[in-house]
Amino acid sequence: MTEHALSSLVQRRDLKVGHFIVEFATPGIGHILKGAGCDFALLDMEHSGFGFETVKSMLRYMEAAQLPAIVRCPSRDYHHIARACDMGAEGVMLPMVGSAKEARQILDCMKYYPKGHRGVALGVAHDNYRGGAVGSKLEAANERTTLFCQIETAEGVANAAEIAAVDGVDCLWVGHFDLSASLGVPGQFDHPKFTKAIDKVVAAARKHKKALGRLVPNVETGIEYNRKGFDFICYSGDVWVLQTALAEAVSRLRAACKAK
User: What does the alpha-carbon distance between residue 72 and residue 175 come to, in Å, rounded to a whole number?
Assistant: First the structure.
């Protein structure tokens, strides 16, 4: 695995640009993203249908490309969180984190003694199947794993400062669609309720010196949110990038050929 690459990135406030993977679990995906200039990949298990075996393979593809990967787990259940860490996820993202208590419960599943109660599994994927002293292994794993808490409910916004204050929470990640729905303004990202919520999350992250992230559908939104203070900008997803580029090219080709 890349040596603490993601845990280093979350400590910096410079721009990190990544890509969302929901469909294309191809062996070449890591190198494709790396060649495009990405700083990280976000692998989705909440909505994609990817299972753990597929994600385990994708993590090795990312490792081969030396591209840090975040895994969005399908739930906050212990076996989902700990399994993602055992497979080698450098970052773990959890949906709909609503309180500091929930953040601590997630960390308890992610971290080994003395920081948590994750079941010990050594000499497996997360430590490259290598041996070593138990104490140093546990310490290294704790340093390596990073937590991205999704703020995507009204409760999460209200408690954003308390969540950001938790030691071990590395990034507040806005889930914009779910947040807008929770606020009663689904898809209305310019609505005062939504923009006020964003401002509150930004203030919480700044106060506690935590990273900020979100998925953006286009370059303009990415620029806008980077100016607000978001340093993890996940530009679109594999399906939508391919579909948009292909649709544009097909449309232009048809129009040009018809005109001729």
Answer: 12
β 16-21/146-151 pair status: unpaired
- CB-CB neighbours of 189 under 10 Å: 15
Task: Compute the distance between CA of residue 126 and CA of residue 199 in angstroms, rounded to an integer.
Answer: 36
Q: Are 73 and 92 in contact (CB under 8 A)?
A: yes
Q: How many helices, marked H, and strands, marked E, lie in the chain? A: 12, 8
CA distance 58 to 69: 9
Tracing tokens 């700044």 back to the chain, one arrives at 206
> For helices 78-87 and 100-110, what crossing angle results, to 10°?
50
What is the enclosing helix (H) or strand (E) of 236? strand 232-237
Q: How far apart are the first and last CA of the chain?
A: 54
pLDDT digits (tens), the chain, 260 positions? 444 589 999 999 999 999 999 999 999 999 999 999 999 999 999 999 999 999 999 999 999 999 999 999 999 999 999 999 999 999 999 999 999 999 999 999 999 999 999 999 999 999 989 989 999 999 999 999 999 999 999 999 999 999 999 999 999 999 999 999 999 999 999 999 999 999 999 999 999 999 999 999 999 999 999 999 999 999 999 999 999 999 999 999 999 999 87
Catalytic residues: 47
Side-chain-facing half-sphere of 87: CA atoms under 13 Å = 26
Taking CA 146 as the corner, what is the angle to CA 142 and CA 147, rounded to the nearest 5 degrees? 120
Residues in the chain: 260
> 207 CB contacts (<8 Å, ≥6 apart)?
161, 164
pTM over 0.85? The answer is yes
